[in-house]
Write a structure and sequence with these properties.
Elements lengths: L1 E4 L2 E6 L8 E7 L44 E7 L4 H14 L3 E7 L7 H4 L5 E3 L8 H10 L4 E7 L16 E5 L6 E3 H8 L28 E4 L5 H9 L12 E2 L4 H9 L4 E5 L8 E3 L1 E3 L11 H5 L8 E6 L9 H10 L2 H10 L7 H10 L2
Parallel strand pairs: 4-5, 4-6, 9-14, 10-11, 10-12
Antiparallel strand pairs: 1-2, 2-3, 3-5, 6-15, 7-15, 8-12, 8-13
Helix pairs in contact: 1-9
Length: 370
């Protein structure tokens, strides 16, 4: 079945027998070569109003995409169903510059995305989360005998709009609005969330251990968050607990999604919750985070996430099979160059689930493609 989508055709095909899922082929029907040009918001199928001020890409600063060469061939991308519209928009935008390419998109889910790369049925894994270390990297190394190649293509979002359903969402820490605490260091977070404290601290089970005094000093800290198998908890384990599997035994695993996590903390004056900064929680306040006791306390917002000033800022990566010292496939390299361009980052910003890269990060990632 074929469904027209602008200048592209989306072809629905049967999934491969090896791995079942929703498979979409995005190709370009071209009777005559189209002149590459910068596409407008309408060309990408999004409205101008969908781009918030916080997500706006400064076109005068970001480099525009200019094809290094005209390429042809198929680019196989595996991703999550939640990212399907974004991947299709990127493929459509790319096709305006590279009309002889065909993008085949397979949408199984975040847990199987990377498997497509090391099983050689995908050229790019559009990772909506961090690669699991060592589980997934070890599987890749068993097959290829070298590490996977990754490129940062966006910053994780803030959970607003559709971004709340993405595994790769930036995380903050919430306490009661009456709680006098305003900032936590990474070591203090480890003191609260961990049991073995690889950052060199000790158990912080009462608010006094975090510097609160008076009536707060002896009150217990009640920790709320997602299930420990959740991708957000895996990120927390690597970024804060320094790889430890030993969590605070009193950690409350809340089922029902992020709203349920924040709801549990809002009902508990002694609660401390790990969750994205979702709107609509007047009983809670967001804590700032500092990398160390000597570093500034930084609030999580679009600017600090994009600049990576927030100590726990997360990135959205593309993972590939690239043997060290060898070039990327020409069509894959050009597609990644498009994503890391003014036009590609504009599509990401307008989609609203993720934040665009800063100019400095974008240029670093472009150099990695060489």
């Amino acid at each position: 079945m074929q469904m027209p989508l602008g200048d592209t055709v989306v072809s629905e095909t049967r999934p491969q027998a090896l791995l079942r899922g929703a498979v979409f082929a995005i190709g370009v029907l071209c009777c005559a070569a189209a002149r590459p040009q910068a596409a407008s918001a309408r060309a990408y199928g999004v409205s101008e109003s969908s781009l918030s001020a916080a997500h706006r890409v400064r076109d005068a600063v970001l480099p525009a995409y200019a094809p290094a060469r005209q390429v042809r061939g198929t680019i196989r991308i595996w991703g999550s169903p939640e990212d399907g519209s974004l991947i299709r928009a990127l493929a459509t935008g790319f096709a305006r510059f590279q009309p002889r390419t065909r993008v085949l998109v397979t949408l199984h889910g975040p847990e199987s995305t990377f498997a497509g790369v090391y099983m050689d049925v995908a050229d790019i894994a559009f990772m909506a989360r961090e690669i699991r270390v060592p589980l997934e990297t070890m599987a890749f190394e068993w097959v290829h005998h070298y590490l996977p190649f990754t490129v940062q293509i966006a910053n994780a979002g803030l959970g607003d709009g559709t971004g709340v359903r993405r595994p790769g969402v930036n995380l903050a820490f919430f306490v009661s609005r009456d709680n006098p605490l305003s900032c936590l260091t990474l070591r203090q977070l480890d003191d609260v969330f961990a049991a073995d404290h690889r950052r060199g601290g000790g158990n912080a089970r009462r608010w006094g251990a975090l510097g609160l005094q008076g009536r707060w000093a002896g009150r217990p800290i009640h920790v709320y968050g997602p299930a420990l198998s959740n991708i957000a908890a895996v990120f927390m384990r690597h970024a804060v607990l320094e790889g430890s599997y030993k969590w605070n035994p009193a950690y409350h695993e809340v089922v029902g999604g992020w709203r349920a996590v924040l709801g549990a903390a809002a009902r508990d004056p002694d609660g401390l919750a790990l969750a994205p900064p979702l709107p609509g929680n007047p009983a809670l306040k967001t804590l700032k985070v500092a990398a160390s006791s000597a570093a500034p306390c930084v609030a999580l917002d679009a600017r600090t996430a994009e600049t990576r000033a927030y100590p726990l800022a997360r990135s959205i990566d593309a993972a590939l099979d690239r043997k060290p010292g060898t070039p990327l496939k020409p069509q894959v390299k050009e597609f990644l160059r498009f994503i890391l361009s003014r036009q590609g980052q504009d599509i990401i910003a307008r989609n609203g689930s993720y934040l665009p890269l800063s100019v400095s990060t974008l240029r670093r990632q472009l150099r990695r493609l060489q």
